[in-house]
Amino acid sequence: xxxxxxxxxxxxxxxxxxxxxxxxxxxxxxxxxxxxxxxxxxxxxxxxxxxxxxxxxxxxxxxxxxx
Length: 67
Description:
Largest sheet: 2 strands, antiparallel
């Protein structure tokens, strides 16, 4: 799956800045004989591409342009 966005109806579609195409999550829990529970979680993801900057907005407080 790909997440796509656009700024307004006239602008072209672009990839979402935080697009993660593949995500795998695994969780597990073990209960020991003493009654203590141990758990863990693992997450693997591909993506987080760097989308080309096509526009910027002037930030008056820092006197700089933000993408």
